[in-house]
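Give me structure tokens for this 709-residue protein.
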Amino acid sequence: MSAEATNPEARPDARPELRRRGRTRLDLRRLGRAALLGPTSRDRLPDAIGHVAEAHRAHHPDADLSILHRAYVLAESSHRGQMRKSGEPYITHPLAVTLILAELGAETTTLTASLLHDTVEDTEVTLDQVRAEFGDEVCFIVDGVTKVEKIDYGAAAEPETFRKMLVATGNDVRVMSIKLADRLHNMRTLGVMRPEKQARIAKVTRDVLIPLAERLGVQALKTELEDLVFAILHPEEYEHTRALIAAHAGERDPLPAIADSVKAVLRDAGIAAEVQVRPRHFVSVHRIALKRGELRGSDFGRILVLVGENADCYAVLGELHTCFTPVVSEFKDFIAAPKFNLYQSLHTAVATPEGFVAEVIVRTRQMHRVAEAGVVALGNPYAHAHAAAEAAAAAESGSPADAADCDEERVDPTRPGWLSRLLDWQQSAPDPDTFWSVLRAELAQDREITVFRADGGAPGTISLPAGASCIDAAYAQYGEAAHGCIGARVNGRLTSLASRLSDGDTVQLLLAQDASSGPAADWLEHARTPAARIAISSWLQAHPDSVKPTTAPARAPLSVVGARGGGGNAVADLPDATVRLAGCCTPVPPDAVAGFVVRGGAVTVHRIHCAAVAQMRALGRTSVAVHWRATADCRVTLLAESFGRPHLLADLTEAIARQGVEVVSATVEPPVEQRVRHTYTLQLPDATGLPALMRAMRDVPGVYDVRRA
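Here you go.
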């Protein structure tokens, strides 16, 4: 977070402003000297990692530090003689990275791998040595963090390193925890690099590492990385923000007084709570300045209220909204609806009688720990699963279970949806450039929704980025089989594939049975997820002849007309009159009907409840009694609505023919949003067969509705 990470000498006055509250920045040069001196005796930890041990014991009092001792000894001996560009012994870097993680509460395995994270990459130490000395878990994490060889990959080394790291993160999120801490320390000490290299590293940090820190919920790392990137890529805005914060430091801050008022209110209500004033970091102040223009004293920080239980959060909220004037538009409940990165809190804002508006965050202490450290605060997400598996194996074999191989896939059942999507589509990325560009676009999505499957299949939910469409849901659920998707129902209602989904929607996706079906070119306009876009693009490139213009010229409906016409088996009580069945309601036996004389002396027959009956009577048309002949045959007009696909007309005609029904006429309208409307006038040998005919037509793949005209 500090500006000295960019240029320590140029901004000495920035050091106190940017130092994280409650944390003492260690002298890395002193640590380096201690590292070179080594331990004074073999039965105690080296002085150089005493700070790490102290921070680790604060979170894990019963932790066994012997493995950290062994990891430090190996790291120090293997890096001995190596120096950083800043002139410090190289061992200061893994020590600093490990200290960052220890302060966040990382467990012992993560810290061990952190001490060793550069040994395989930069020294003669091999993965086999790490596995033999520290076990498979440490081996897996170190391998995940290790970069690929630039001599093998050339310009693609950086994208392929991130691809490798993300795949490893899918099996163990601790890999990315170490990478984030590693990048934070490198950003803190970036001032020794050339300006162009600083900018390049800062851009990758902005586009990839900061979004990953956000998704993993590690806010403590994310906010400091944001400030360091801000200072490098936007120096003028940074200086302006620094000046605003410096000017505010000389003014009276209203937040402590507001915090005291909040304490008094909660104390009187009998709610045990800790109330703090949390200063905003640089980027947060900059965003508030852009949003509100002129800043007031209460805009430079927020009030944090920590309580013991979830119910206490809502009790605090009630007291705040009762004793202060709430700003309703600022209320957000991330406890009932947590963010996709594990974040939980209540956010609100209250106005004081003096006219200040203070933002207030309410959370439990456990929520606070997770909000700051994210996945790091969860410890080892595989510990319980491993213990259960080992116990089961031991019970079955009568002996302890063998350790898993270092490369064995260990899928976390709590893996977030965004990471699962990323791991799926990266397999289809054809080249490093595509992977790199699509990765940045995917990480730019800052919100996630969850939709439910209507078919009850497992898993029952699909996680998608905000703004995703039914097309994205189809590829998330069916993979390449989604090429044959012909429509969707959202919350029970038919909708186009281009429709955007909302959080909590229930989605039923309809697939064509024709294996040769493929996506339309305009699907790319509505696909948001990389998996969908890559799959659609690959299919279109493989089938160039199948690509049709998205805006086809208007064309007349296709009509097939038979030879028969007239009124079917309806008889009017008017000698020699021509009888016609009305197309608006298509009556069939045994419908109750009414007849009316129209121009030319013809009699039109309507169902008794047809809206046209009232219109005929209002116009004064002559009413004629109508009855049905004893014969059972009848004529009816049906409307069939379907999704467009090859051979649909043939399949519908075949289904009609199998019912023994004659097609008098058929009209097929041009497709609209991939939906097609068919109108059939049919001669049935028996009116009682109409329900079976309509069911047979609905059973044709792609047909979603059949009704009488």
